[in-house]
Hints:
single chain; Beta-Lactamase; 6-stranded antiparallel β-sheet; Roadblock/LAMTOR2_dom
Amino acid sequence: MIEQQGKFDWMLQDLYDGVPGIEMIVVLSADGLRIARYSGDPDAADRVAAACAGLQSLASAVSQEIPTSDGAMKMVLIEMNGGYFYLMAAGANAYLAVLSDVRCEPGRMGLSMADLVARIGPHLTSPARRNGQTV
């Protein structure tokens, strides 16, 4: 059920256990590589991570159209038939993504994700990469 580098297990499990309806949690780099996951299929987590790279880029581009925005994406929420998708900035070049069913209340999830990021954000970082190599 858990696949990470060990240091993320308690962090992600705490979120998973604290909010009903979570199907999968993925920690990813800005370029769409999975850093960690909790629950769900590893291949699905890889697909979610890759899709998130485009989504966070799109959200940042749209946020630049708000005159008072600094262009940084903070959170994206997508409501779908059967559930929700959440994507939140979670540290330098890192993001936290959660898929949930309809039992999950979006306000509670947003607060729970923000709490997790505040507590462990410095640990959820990914070094910048250029041409597949860490910079």
